[in-house]
Please model this.
Amino acid sequence: MKTQLEYAREGIVTPQLKHVAEEEGIPEEVLIKKVADGSVVIPANINHTNLIPCGIGEGLRIKINANIGTSSDTGDVNTELEKLKVCIDYKADAVMDLSTGGDINAIRKTIIENCPLTIGSVPIYQALVETTASYKAVVNMTEDDLFNAIEAHCRDGMDFITVHCGITRRAVELLKYEGRVTDVVSRGGAFVIAWMLHNNKENPLYEHFDKLLEIAHKYDVTLSLGDGLRPGSTADATDRAQIEELITLGELVDRARAAGVQAMVEGPGHVPLNQIITNMQLQKTICHNAPFYVLGPLVTDIAAGYDHITGAIGGAIAATNGASFLCYVTPAEHIGLPDIEDVKNGIIASRIAAHAADIANGIPGAAERDRRMSAARKKLDWEGQKVECIDPVKFSEMRRNKQTATEACSMCGKYCAMKIVEKELGISCGDHC
Model:
């Protein structure tokens, strides 16, 4: 069995690559070179039979991921299917099942069966749940427990998996003396570090990376090399522990490509505005232009309840400077498990950030859409604005609630600025739009 990467290196246009080229509006010969050199990945597990593939990486439209999944406090698969529907309806490009509660095997399989979007997971969560369910401490998880969970997720059809391979003993030593405010905020990273420290061993995901590559290659699963040491506060951004992990991830990207396995790299969480560009440049250089998957980044720590906004601010800057894949942040980040409304708001905020970056990056069709929206606005064409609007449902609701007797909106009413100037200039939108 060959992977998308290996097919591309042989010059073979797969159905998945053909679909992505058509969706992105770029020539197949351009895309195939990007997949072949690893600057673009097309996550497409051979067992995800209802997948509508998307490409992630250099020169493509910025993609959005939405996290769903149960927690230890709630394990209702029906709620997660409702969230999945919101992800599809509001045009997320990918979802991740991060379930840790209920029958996670059944939940995972049900979500995959109902998901046409690119889908990912964090298999160590399953290894953790199964370990603690048998009344053992998390640190007593065996290496077999971990790799069995990885195999199960890949076999079931996950297109990409987050694996925290870059946490090494040296990185943990740097972490000890770094003086961080929030230490480690990655759940998967925390599980790996606790296991390493308790057992006085190297990270099995790093030590046995070749075994991981064999599993990923077997199902053509894209490795999302996780940032277990990502900063959880702006004060911790771009420290030695974070960069040490990034250097290791760059080495693992090369090893994955050599094995014919697609790989992308996950990026920092909380980063001040003035450090985002530096972080993007470091990743693209150290990881040899691998697609960069960022959580936010969140540009301040004080916006609990509004972190979809802080994440969108950081995401727009990151995506304009090298990031290819934005993991949404919901208003419930740092507070609790997101509900359906949180999921919707998180997707919309991230899509705004992605579209803003697409305009700046010169992605075909992005600026044209804005121009159509502006032309409709000039004409007071409310239906035309609805078509171009990123959230037509909310647009319609607000228009209905705020509509006036005049053609214009209730902000200006009969004193519409565009109408006044249009009349005096003696030109209409059709003259120049």
